[in-house]
Amino acid sequence: WAKSAGKADFALFDEDRNAREVHRYALAQALPAALDSGEMFLDYQPIVDLAGGRPPMVEALVRWRHPERGLLKPEEFIPVAEETGAIVELGRWVLDRAVRDAAAWPDGPAVAVNVAVRQVHDYGLVREVATALEVSGLPPRRLCLEITETALMDTEEDGLPGPGTLRTLADMGIGIAVDDFGTGYSNLARLRDLPATSLKIDASFVADLGHPDAGDFAESVIISLVALAHAAGMTVTAEGIETADQARRLTTLGVDYGQGFHYSRPVSAERIEAVMAELGAQK
Ligand code: C2E
Ligand code: MG
Ligand code: MG
Ligand code: MG
């Protein structure tokens, strides 16, 4: 089950591969019950203002405390939940939980919630978001939905409610962020037409920043993305900031927000307020 096997995976017998598939699907099937029995929870990671003058945010990240398998990270159950469709129910739970948590932080940070492409194609999304905001009293400007660049390209298919749904949500005053930007080979000129309010530069570019073997490429990419995003009226967030040097360079390059272990790892809902207060006091 451990995914640490790495390259040795390819040498496994088909039987082992089948067994792992069975495990994956068993997880997806167990998901709805896990939601009911309280095995899922959210951690929150700060998104700090690099340039100054903007309110901070937090990102909600789902975890599964599995009774037999221990703590599961999203990469172990989100992809299969997307395949089986269980992601729609999980996504509804995440949205609800995150919006209620955020509403309990008075004048607190906006909360960013990851949304899968299946949810964008689900006709219930706009109503669910509107209801969650109404019930909790969270103002729309304190909610941001994150959708990966790859998923955004999938919303282009004809007959599906994708782009219209995102436009409607943006018109409600909710933030729309393009997650993992730079990994999806999308047409940069299209950025202008997306109903997005911010762009999250993928952690791989941040990791390459200042890396001796990577040359200046990552820096050039970031400069271009900042220019494009700002021209399109979007803010820019850099993901995966692990060092003070990366934070400094990204600030110099005009990146608006930063997120990463350098500031804080994802923490529990109980701890996030204290962590945010500490980060705010450091400035
Ligand atoms: P993401 O939305 O790009 O979230 C950022 C991921 O990077 C998180 O991993 C976070 O813990 C990790 N991270 C943050 N700072 C650093 C850093 O400095 N270094 C490193 N190495 N990693 C850092 P996590 O929590 O394991 O989530 C992985 C992905 O799973 C997320 O990527 C997102 O795509 C997905 N995901 C998480 N929660 C949800 C959810 O509620 N719904 C959906 N649909 N997807 C989710
Ligand atoms: Mg995200
Ligand atoms: Mg990301
Ligand atoms: Mg990611």
TrEMBL record:
Which residue intervals define the domain EAL in the entry? 24-280
Name recorded for this polypeptide: Diguanylate cyclase/phosphodiesterase with PAS/PAC sensor(S)
Which species is the source of this protein?
Catenulispora acidiphila (strain DSM 44928 / JCM 14897 / NBRC 102108 / NRRL B-24433 / ID139908)
